[in-house]
Structure formats: C-alpha cells, structure tokens
Backbone:
C-alpha cells in the first residue's frame, strides 16, 4: 500500500453545491476511514479546499476511489493534486510503504 496526499481545490462558486452534498461526502469519508483507506481528511480553514490522506494500492486505484466522492459527482471540486507521500514521523508513519 502507498500513502497518498490528495489536495482538493474548491471554486468559490461551489459553496452551495458543497453545502448540499456535504452529508453524503462525510458519510463516504467516514466509511473509508472505518475501513482504513482514508487516514485523515479535513477542509482548509479558508474554505478554498481540503487535504485527504489515503492508503491505496496505486494511483489508478486511488483515482477510481476519488471518482466515487459525492463532491466529485456533484462538480464541487475544481482541481486536485495527488502525491505519493512517505510519512516518516508521527501518527501516520506506520502506514508508509
């Protein structure tokens, strides 16, 4: 498994869509967290995006998973940045490959 950091960028015009879709998005993230696929997630304080930390086989599997996010289906995400990440210190260090 590889740890991936995924940054969501939200467009200013997507606030209403995100508000309407947030319950489904949070249900989706909670399920992934429960199964150990999502290690951490949360919005940035300025509301411009969010950071999500995933455990996935590879980037292809991660991208398939991200397409299932209700925010993605609703068009609430204007951009993403995905990077393999190797946490070496702290609570997530045990998840590094």
Residues:
């Amino acid at each position: 498994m590889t740890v991936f950091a995924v940054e969501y960028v939200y467009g200013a015009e997507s606030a209403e869509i995100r508000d309407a879709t947030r319950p489904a998005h949070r249900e989706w993230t909670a399920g992934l967290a429960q199964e150990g696929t999502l290690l951490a997630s949360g919005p940035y304080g300025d509301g411009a995006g969010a950071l999500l930390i995933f455990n996935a086989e590879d980037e292809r599997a991660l991208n398939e998973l991200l397409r299932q996010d209700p925010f993605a289906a609703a068009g609430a995400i204007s951009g993403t940045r995905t990077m393999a990440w190797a946490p070496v210190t702290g609570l997530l260090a045990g998840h590094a490959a």
